[in-house]
């Protein structure tokens, strides 16, 4: 999913079609200062939406194999954008208890696989979005970006409308779908 395509949908939702005619979006017009500010603001708002989605709705999960001889390791070994450690397993798939003490993770010795959630990397207009687990569509991100943009530009009534659409779309996308099992009928 391309950042430009999400922003194009957002611009269409906001009815700011003059931004689509700029060279940033493969148009022919050089963006004015105010148009460039709007484009930069849209990218900023999309970054905010991605952070919100990753922390509240669809965590971005990663795994890393760590060898520990002492039974502890620093969180910096995992990475700088660590949000939360979800689980630690050994080579055979057994879960291990762990305790976070400051920047140190205390657990058992051995070769361990750490599953953790991260904050998304900061994006720019040329970035590609790839780690949203297939649940979050361009349309949902566009709704969220439009909401943030309208809040920042103090258009609160309009922002509330888009926020409702954004939240309901997120809830629908994150809803767990499971098979409905009916009890078997009995003959009397």
Helix-strand blueprint:
Blueprint: H1 3-14, H2 33-56, E1 60-68, E2 72-74, E3 82-90, E4 95-96, E5 99-101, E6 104-106, E7 110-118, H3 138-152, H4 156-174
Antiparallel strand pairs: 1-7, 2-6, 3-4, 3-7, 5-6
Commentary on this structure:
- A hairpin with a 4-residue loop joins strand 3 (82-90) and strand 4.
- The protein has 4 helices and 7 strands.
- By secondary structure, it is an alpha+beta fold.
- The radius of gyration is 22 Å and the shape is flat.
- The protein has helices at residues 3-14, 33-56, 138-152, 156-174, and strands at residues 60-68, 72-74, 82-90, 95-96, 99-101, 104-106, 110-118.
- The strands form 2 sheets. A 4-stranded antiparallel beta sheet has the order 1-7-3-4, with no helix packed on it.
Report a brief summary of the structure.
This protein is an alpha+beta fold. Helix content is 37%, strand content 20%.
The helix content, as a percent range, equals 25-40%
Order of helices and strands: HHEEEEEEEHH
The number of helical elements comes to 4
Largest sheet: 4 strands, antiparallel
Rg, rounded, reads 22 Å
Separation of termini? 57 Å
Tell how many strands the DSSP assignment holds: 7
Number of domains: 2
Mean pLDDT: 87
Shape: flat
Low-confidence stretches: none
Strand order of the largest sheet: 1-7-3-4
In terms of structural class, how would the helical and strand content be classed?
alpha+beta
Residue fraction in strands = 15-25%
Describe the structure using short key phrases.
188 residues; alpha+beta; 2 domains; 37% helix; 20% strand
